[in-house]
């Protein structure tokens, strides 16, 4: 290897940083956004003391500080890449092996931690805790006096348990060969006693104190892959140095190791990364930021088939005025594709709350948002939820409550300016009435009738809004879409304007033709709002179905029609 040896570590560090950053930035960006929206980092002393008052709290505070930048996917990807790369560099410094082959093998622990981060429940604080603990190991290694080094390790073990949490066990385990056996045993005993002692004074379960309070979104779930990565780190750091005197054989072995490590890394990531959830997170993100055309474009590339993604698509079609014309060009899964059923989790209610918000169901949006925040498993607050709750209370005129949410948001980095500007509107009826969004929603909301309702009777609430605001086209479209997806043709016909003279939307024409057929009305004399081409296509559809044409042919020819949905998809 010769002169090339000194370039191995920086080259591998650059590869790790680029690989992790590109993976999360290009292939997994919505997992990055997902992390940011379920925390609320405040730049206050009180917030710091609250977060850092549990074992691992300081590492968690630093992790949350970094996670607030995840509102920009590339920033979050780069931060994740930097943390994983730092782990690699620290492992290389701690490990006994210094040869090129050993440097390549040290990629494995870093790769294991990157795989852990593909789980949306994994928190950045876990990587920060590992970095800080490995830094303590490096600091211990810099102490040349054996007695002082042993004292440092023993004293630092309970301290770093409080700073970093239970991954502080890395400190005695990685220093096992370099300190006196008595000091190692003492340090290991302290690592075991620390969570037991903490359980006596803190309101956390012993399991969480042993496996980590804030390494994982679900505090009652053991982050198995994190601890596998910790174990891998201990094993690889204690591997003997692998040196090959023959330069050619050494080069071949190093190359084989690099290919093997990369292959295993890629294969593991492919197994652990959940791209189905990534797709759902993408729809939710685009809905949150009102990227309606992007949602429709994404659906055109791959048909959405989950209630969350379908409901986001239908909202996007509605907001761009295309719902009644194009809804059946996409997969529809019944009324759940308009309003997914309520569930007490912290993810799905937020997407549904976006739909309620844009339709003027302010109280329903507020209810779903509040429930989503209260269901966050690690009891954090949410910047996204706080912003929406401030808005719903502002529209409802509950200024004291809105002010509390805005005051908290003013202590953040990325919500501060919005909170301060919005706070100026508190109590100012003229400002709210003149606001393009809040004024419209305040006028649209159905006052006392907009309350919590069963998701099977949402049409009754929409009908109340439509009665007060007959010119609100999105609400009217949602009512008719609800009846179409529920295959309630009679209710559709009852609320559809059958006196109109101009052509109706595509789905409405198709549904009315089916209504005429079911009620034995002649489809030869179609009303003026049904185009001739649509009527002719319907007649062909009936003939093809009666002739028993193959399902594939029917799908290919009529798959974008309401008739096909009513006959095959319901």
What would you say this structure looks like, in words?
Helix 5 (73-94) packs antiparallel against helix 7 (107-116), helix 17 packs parallel to helix 19 (348-359) and helix 27 packs antiparallel against helix 28. The chain starts with 7 loop residues before the first helix and ends with a helix. The mean pLDDT is 92. The protein is an all-alpha fold. The protein is built from 32 helices and no strands. It has helices at residues 8-27, 29-37, 45-51, 57-67, 73-94, 100-105, 107-116, 124-141, 146-164, 170-174, 181-201, 206-211, 224-237, 247-272, 275-288, 292-301, 307-319, 323-326, 348-359, 362-374, 383-396, 399-409, 416-423, 429-434, 438-444, 458-468, 473-485, 489-495, 506-518, 532-546, 551-558, 562-569. 67% of the residues lie in helices and 0% in strands.
Euclidean distance between termini CA atoms: 67 Å
Largest sheet: none
Task: List segments where confidence is low: pLDDT < 50 over at least 5 consecutive residues.
Answer: none
> Number of DSSP helices?
32
Secondary-structure content class? mainly alpha
Report the helical percentage. 55-70%
Q: What is the residue-averaged pLDDT?
A: 92
Let me know the number of strands: 0
Rg, Cα atoms, Å: 30 Å
Question: In one word, what is the shape?
Answer: elongated
Roughly what fraction of the amino acids lie in strands? under 5%
